[in-house]
């Protein structure tokens, strides 16, 4: 039985449809990613799953509880890390976690044990009695992830968990998320617009654009759907090489053009020696070879006709990042 | 049920920790009332005499106490706006806790901090020579708490429907400050024009100041029963309003 299941869930704001009839299921123990540009409806969708917004139509269940009719059941089953910081900066790390544990009915005699456990996990145990306002952006993020785990949730929701963090901190946070699943079998549902994040972290990805799910598969499945790798050969006679390679089953498509030959094929790196051998046999001199594996960028471009990067620095995001930077300086 | 009490207690504790950690807020909260007290008590007190005797300093002291509670409480309610801006409000709103419990925790916490400010002011007053009979202290604290929790709830109600502190400043200038002035905190209302008297009747702080004056000086304009009755009614209105408006905050 899936731990998250949404069927035809829709959210309208007046005439604007933010989420348009989305259906998806997430299995227990999965790391599931919702990938899309800003404004695609990711946060709205997650807000409905965590009972912060009511769906306009459709149904969703989390851990067996209906998000509309039993929000309390859902809230008890989940941990949330919001896109924007939601810590009390005047309180210490310990006090923030203690308050959270109390709000989520963690028994009194277990509170301290669990707080230390999660603080150790995100390597903040040495800072437990420092006020959050002295923490860096990455530390705050880690503290929020720790907080989301104190009440042992069945599902952890992460809305853009690494937005605005430097690459090193980002990798660090990916490690924590992987560790979570490994050691606690927590199901993770995250949104992101970072391709690399979706690719390396998620078991499955749903690509969302304009409120609709466009594709849903494993990262490699999505990339394979584009039909193989691209091999670019610079050679003395592209036409001759092209006809030599005709009849090779592994080659899906080939196109010669001024001094170059473009091939589409599966497992390109394994075919290079064979192609070089054929070229030598045919007397074609190859001066360079480059292999391009499809990325999620290509997948996104293929299905939406746009690159996700074009949308990356929207005004909303740059505003948000400025606000964060300002907060951090205080 | 037990779970809700724990949530209320922890939210109360949070307000207390934040208050005690902010030295500037503690000093600032009694700064202006202190200057009012000194200016009026010793400045004007030297040139006016009250009908029926008694020093003006003793007369104005309960008024200044009302000022401390009024401003302290309303600003504690404003913490809802700060929580909105810093994102912390979300953390409490999605917790498996009733919204009413969140409001109650905040209101009790805010009221406690206002009463602490009031206690500091009483201490300052005693040093300045205001007569504060020790046996009146328990009843005085009870009235102070009643006034505070009612005004914190008013602050929470206002903060629930506001997006930033700028709007709140407007409320302070056009609602809170007039409430202080019309309450009879700094002058006896018997001798003012009738229109101002009517304004003072609809000002809830009037009854708070009057009650504290009765407790400290033995007598004032109304009876203690009337004062407490009005305050309890006002409390019922503001807490219901706070619970209603807070529940309507969009996540």
What report would you give on this structure?
The complex is a heterodimer of chains A (330) and B (251). Chain A has 330 residues and is α/β, with parallel strands linked by helices. Chain A folds into 2 domains: 4-223, Rossmann fold (3-Layer(aba) Sandwich), CATH 3.40.50.300; 227-293, Alpha-Beta Plaits, CATH 3.30.70.980. In chain A, 40% of the residues lie in helices and 27% in strands. A 6-stranded mixed β-sheet of chain A has the order 6-7-8-3-9-10, with helices on both faces. Chain A has a 4-stranded antiparallel β-sheet with strand order 2-1-4-5, covered by helices on one side. A 4-stranded antiparallel β-sheet of chain A has the order 12-13-11-14, covered by helices on one side. In chain A, α3 crosses α4 (108-121), α4 (108-121) packs across α5 (137-149) and α9 packs across α10. Chain A starts with a strand and ends with a helix. With 251 residues, chain B is an all-alpha fold. Chain B has one domain (2-247). Chain B has 11 helices and no strands. Chain B has helices spanning 2-21, 23-43, 56-77, 79-86, 88-93, 99-128, 137-160, 165-182, 194-202, 204-217, 224-247. The longest helix of chain B is centred in the middle third of the chain and has 30 residues, at 99-128. Chain B is globular and about 60 Å long. Chain A binds chain B through residues 47, 50-53, 72, 75-76, 80, 82, 84-91, 95, 98-100, 102-105, 131, 327, and chain B through 3, 6-7, 9-11, 13-14, 17-18, 21-22, 86-97, 251.
């Amino acid at each position: 039985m899936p731990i998250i299941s949404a069927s035809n869930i829709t959210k309208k704001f007046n005439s604007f449809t933010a989420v348009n009839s989305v259906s998806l299921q997430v299995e227990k123990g999965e790391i599931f990613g919702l990938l899309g540009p800003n404004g695609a409806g990711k946060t709205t969708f997650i807000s409905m799953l965590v009972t912060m917004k009511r769906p306009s139509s459709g149904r969703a269940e989390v851990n067996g509880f209906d998000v509309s009719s039993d929000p309390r059941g859902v809230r008890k089953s989940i941990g949330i890390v919001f896109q924007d910081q939601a810590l009390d900066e005047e309180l210490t790390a310990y006090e923030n976690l203690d308050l959270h544990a109390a709000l989520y009915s963690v028994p009194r005699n277990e509170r301290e044990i669990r707080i230390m456990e999660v603080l150790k996990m995100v390597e903040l145990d040495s800072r437990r009695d420092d006020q959050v306002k002295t923490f860096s952006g990455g530390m705050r993020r880690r503290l929020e992830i720790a907080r989301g785990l104190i009440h042992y949730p069945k599902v952890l929701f992460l809305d853009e968990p690494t937005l605005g963090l430097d690459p090193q901190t980002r990798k660090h946070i990916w490690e924590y998320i992987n560790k979570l699943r490994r050691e606690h079998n927590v199901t993770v549902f995250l949104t992101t617009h970072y391709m690399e994040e979706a690719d390396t972290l998620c078991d499955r990805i749903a690509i969302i654009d304009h409120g609709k799910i466009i594709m849903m598969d494993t990262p490699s499945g999505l990339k394979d759907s584009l039909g193989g790798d691209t091999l670019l050969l610079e050679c003395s006679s592209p036409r001759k090489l092209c006809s030599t390679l005709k009849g090779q089953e592994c080659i899906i498509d080939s196109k010669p053009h001024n001094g170059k030959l473009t091939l589409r094929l599966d497992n390109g790196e394994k075919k290079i020696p064979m192609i070089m051998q054929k070229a030598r046999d045919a007397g074609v001199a190859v001066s360079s070879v480059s292999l391009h594996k499809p990325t999620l960028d290509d997948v996104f471009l293929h299905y939406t006709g746009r690159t996700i990067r074009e949308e990356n620095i929207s005004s909303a995001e740059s505003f948000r990042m400025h606000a964060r930077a300002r907060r951090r300086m205080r | 049920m037990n779970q809700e009490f724990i949530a209320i207690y922890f939210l109360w504790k949070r307000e207390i920790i934040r208050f005690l950690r902010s030295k500037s807020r503690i000093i600032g909260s009694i700064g202006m009332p202190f200057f009012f007290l000194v200016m009026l008590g010793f400045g004007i007190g030297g040139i006016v005499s009250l009908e029926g005797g008694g020093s003006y300093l003793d007369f104005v002291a309960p008024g200044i106490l009302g000022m401390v509670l009024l401003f302290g409480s309303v600003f504690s309610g404003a913490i809802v706006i700060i929580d909105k801006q810093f994102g912390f409000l979300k953390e409490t709103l999605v917790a498996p806790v009733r919204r009413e419990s969140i409001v109650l925790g905040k209101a009790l916490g805010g009221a406690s901090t206002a009463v602490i400010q009031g206690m500091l002011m009483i201490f300052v007053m005693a040093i300045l020579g205001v007569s504060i009979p020790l046996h009146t202290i328990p009843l005085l604290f009870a009235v102070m708490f009643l006034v505070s929790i009612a005004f914190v709830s008013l602050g929470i109600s206002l903060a629930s429907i506001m997006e930033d502190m700028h709007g709140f400043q407007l409320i302070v200038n056009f609602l809170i400050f007039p409430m202080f002035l019309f309450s009879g905190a700094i002058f006896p209302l018997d001798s003012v024009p009738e229109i101002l008297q009517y304004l003072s009747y609809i000002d809830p702080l009037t009854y708070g100041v009057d009650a504290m004056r009765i407790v400290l000086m033995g007598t004032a304009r109304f009876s203690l029963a009337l004062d407490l009755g009005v305050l309890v009614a006002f409390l019922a209105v503001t807490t219901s309003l706070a619970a209603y408006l807070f529940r309507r905050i969009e996540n």
